[in-house]
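URGENT: need a sanity check before tomorrow's submission.

F., can you look over the Membrane protein record below? I want to be sure the sequence and structure line up before it goes out.
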Amino acid sequence: MNQDYWSVIKGFLQQHSPTCIRCVRTCCDKAQIADFLAPLLLRLYLAPVLWMAGSQKLANFTDTAEWFGSSLGFPMPYLMVFLVGVLETFGAIFLLVGFATRLFTIPLMAIMAVAAYSVHWHNGWLAIATGSGIFTTERTLGAIERLDRAKEILQNNGDYAWLTENGSFVVLNNGIEFAATYFIMLLVLFFIGSGRWVSVDYWLKQRFFKD
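Structure tokens as predicted:
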């Protein structure tokens, strides 16, 4: 009985699998008409992140420069803050409209790499501390222990339901997770460009550089 059943299944697959494969390939080929969505969404995601990072550096210029010099040990901290702030701010605008995308991803990737190494590396991978998983460290385990203690204190001495009404308490681990993620997204944009239809780069290429 089982042998007959599997024979029927095998016969069905042998007969219909080529058709199914062709159908899937056809659908995937037709989906390429919307391939502009991937770089567009990457740009729309990164633009506000970079804008906030750059504009905050420029708005708090002196404090950021002192942090760059005293805590991070960067040379010429005032110049560094100015360059990073301007690159992130203009990079956000240019990514948003899709102008000079590949060019601007290069210094932005450099900024992310330096930030990951100088600011976040010693904290490990995780941006938010967790007590389990492959990226858990003694640091995050200690953070969760203290977080549980803080929650206990708040539950016993405060209105915990109101305190957590708009979100749960977490501990910022400040690892390289976000910087690495942004670096990878920028790297993808470097290789694929800003995409078709909804980018300045595309229309400039169509107007001036079309073969």
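My own read: The chain has nine helices and no strands. The chain has three domains: 1-33, 35-127+174-211, 129-167. If you see anything odd, call me.
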